[in-house]
Amino acid sequence: MLSADEIQTSLAGAWRLMMGKPDGLRLLDLSAEGFWNSFQALLVAVPALVVGWVGVANEIGDPLIVSGRFSMVVRLALVDLGSWVLPLVALALVAPYAGIGNRFVHYVVASNWASAIIAWMLLPSALMRLFMPSAGEAATLVALLLFIASLVLGWRMTNAAIGKGPAVGSAVFAGMFATSLVVLFSLQSLLGIVIPR
Predict the structure, then answer these.
(1) What is the pTM of this model?
(2) What's the whole-number average pLDDT of the chain?
(3) Cβ atoms of residues 56 and 195 within 8 Å
(4) What span, in angstroms and rounded, lies between the C-alpha atoms of 80 and 15?
(5) C-alpha distance from residue 36 to each of 31, 85, 89, 98, 175 (Å)
């Protein structure tokens, strides 16, 4: 398990990349061990993600059946876990052919830590959804604004981590975003999750 200082340094590096500053890579451990350790960012993100899972489970699960809501939380967790990891597996397969094989580790490490930051950044909308269900439109607006901000920050991080110019960085970002959506909707369908619109 990484120390609190190592986690803080990794998050600081990812944040610098999200601000479009490539020197954030210097704060990240890009070794083989650092690559695998970066998946501990999932653990950093879990508390924020749980709030979202519970809020959605309360909306779409049977509020009178605790086991039904718990089952929904588990399924939502599996969807998020798959949406986080499976696109990275897909990128591992295509990176050598796309000319970014030498930046794959940089991207994965940066992406993992940036994803933890984004999970916490989206927490306000999840809290609104959980504790103020009557504020549906306001919560939706906050969620939309935070989502747009997360896309901008994710695009900046991708460009800085890939380091091959905005065209290649934008192509990687678009490909990863599209893959994430495909995985998200596929897993939701597979696990019988219907999110109300």
Answers:
(1) 0.91
(2) 91
(3) yes
(4) 21
(5) 9, 12, 13, 23, 23
